[in-house]
Structures are given as C-alpha cells and as structure tokens.
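Appendix C reproduces, verbatim, an entry submitted by the partner laboratory led by Prof. M.T., so that reviewers can inspect both the input and the predicted structure.
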Amino acid sequence: MYKPLELFIGLRYTRAKRRNHFISFISLTSMLGITLGVAVLITVLSVMNGFEQEVRERILGMTSHATISTYDNQLENWQEVAETASEHERVIGVAPYVRAEGMLTYGGQVNGVMIRGILPEEEGKVSTVAEKMVVGRLADLRAGEFGIVLGHALARALGVIPGDKVTLVTPSANVSLAGIMPRLKRFTVVGVFEVGMYEYDSTLALMHLQDAAKLFRLNNNVSGVRLKLDDLFFAPFVSRELAEQIPGMYRVRDWTTQHANYFRAVATEKRMMFIILLLIVAVAAFNIVSTLVMVVTDKEADIAILRTLGASPGSIMKIFMVQGTLIGVIGTVLGVISGVLLALNVETLVPAIEQLLGLQFLPAEVYYISDLPSELHWDDVIKIGLISFLISIVATLYPARRAARTQPAEALRYE
C-alpha cells in the first residue's frame, strides 16, 4: 500500500492472469529472448577475450616483447646494446638471437623451417620455450656440437626422434669448380618442444647461437637482441625510449607492431560480434513492443476508468513502462546469471561436448590454438547488462505513449 500508484498497478498487471493467453506467451518469449541474447553475448565475448589473451601469451612466450636489431640484421656490438637495454627499469630479460630460414630434410621428407640461434642459458630470460620441452633440454644445445631442437609437429612431420641426424639446407650457396652448390649441414636432434601453438610447433627449430652464426657466416655478430618487459603493454613506450637512448642506427620493434594486424583484426571482430549478438536482444525488445501494444488494446477500458478517476497521461505511461521494464529486467538478470555461469565453465563444457559428438571444434592445423579458453571481464558483463536494460526501457516508450493518449470517451463508448 506504500508503493507509488504507477508501480503498484504496473506490477499487478504483470502478475495478473490474462484472458488472452497469447499475450502471456509473447511476454514469456520476450523474456527468454533477452535472456538468451545476454547469455550468448557474455559467453562469446568471454571466449574471445580468452582466445586473445591465450594467443598473445603464446606468441610472446616464443617471440619477445621487443627486439633491437640493425637494418642488415648483423648486430656487431650486441653485448653493449644488451647492457644498455638491461639498464632500463622495465626490462627484466635480455638475450641475443640469430634468425634465418632454411629447409630440413630427413628420409625423403622436406620441411621449410624458421631457424633461431639462441644461448640456452639466456633464453629462459625472454621466452618460455625451456618450460615447454617434452624431450631433452635446451642445455643439450652446446656450441660446436651442432645440435638442434625441433617443434613437436615439425619432428612428427619429418618422422625424427632425438638422436636422429637431419640435414639443413640454407639459402646461401658455395661456389666451387663444380658450380654453385647449396650449403648443407648435418644436425643431431637433441630435443623436442611443444608450445601448443601450431605455427611454432610446425616451423621453428632452435640451435646454439655460435653454431647458427657460423652456419650463416655472421662471424661474431648476431641478428639482434630480444627483450622481456615487466609489463608487455608498456612495450611501445619502452621501444621509443630505447631508440633514443642507444647511440647509433638501430631498429627497435615491439610486439604491437610485429603482430599489429592480427590483434587489430581480433579487436574489430570483437566489436562486430558485440553488435551482431546485440541484435538478439533488440529482436526480443521488439517482442516487448508487440506485447505492450496488445496489452494496451486489451486494457483500454481500464485506462479510461483510471483517467476518469484523475490519473494523468504521465501516470498511465509509467504504468505500462513498469510492466515492459520488468520483463526486460527479469530477462537481463537471468541472462547475466546464465552467461556468467557459461563463461566460467566453457573450458569444461566444450571438451565434454567434443567427446560426446566425436569432433574437434578448433583443429590445431587451422587455428592458432586447439582449445577454447574463456576469460570473463566484469566490465563487459556490466556493459551488456546496462545496454540490455536501456533497450528494454526504450522498447516500452511507444506502447506507453499510445496508452497515455487513450481518450476515455472513445474507450468507454461501447462498454
């Protein structure tokens, strides 16, 4: 009895059993539509957030937050450059590298590979590959022994195991009396790593820095220096500062430029998916419009009586806004609860569904990662809930205005 009149009547209309069951059915479908739209939107955005973070971590776990190199990829005084870079407050790891391309052959199998020369004792400062070794250790790479560590998919494609000898064909050539001959070198497989990212597992091969420099005729030079920062999102700022601090002509690049197209595409896809899935909520809101229009038509006599008792058009409008908003609120709350529960359990539900159906949703040969991660951002949940609530309120405006314009005399003429 202490409720405002508009709220009291609006809630009473919502709870009342209608003579027209079709209106009740549309109200239920409107509520379920909003619930479904909000739940799907939260779940999909959480999966995309998880996918983006997982790929970013795997990419940066194998590459680097930033690199310092020269334009001809032959850095001479890399020790001085590494020492200067390590003095920056945000740099927590520095390691040299040699980067080149070639072909590995074994038993008639040929695969193109990305060669990376590393110092095994320093590599753990800038990458996670040492933690991803499934056979052998990075320490098994010793200067002068020409050992090589392969990605899991690459080793499987070649059909090799540790101890086998593979032949590396380099792009450079030797000139002899017999003509121009490609440079070949035999390497012994000493380990296998698996980072869970097909791009690296199928193409990357690691060898000792000195072996790589000797093979590709770099003398005592390296391709560059890799850096790891305490916060990867500061990479652009640190890169600019180092470019100004280090004397000489150097090229300083960070992960945001090296993989800019991919992360920009993911951000664009997230925005488009948000807009597309928001249309589900908009369609459900149209059902609220149709529901309230039919309720207004059904309640014309009641509206006329309220008007004759002194209710203002604004009060009539608020009554039906309460009714429509309540449908939206219930649907939004149920959708948020369902979406949060789904987002938090995606990593458990998807493998169960894959096992039940006997298929894999994300084949490793096609996608960057083969599992489906999920990361729930509460700011996304709040944003989705507020937008859904606002759409529900907007959907009530036209039917409520129509109810407010009802003329008592016309509505009661045939009663």
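The CA atoms of residues 31 and 331 lie 5 Å apart. Additional entries are available on request from the coordinating office.
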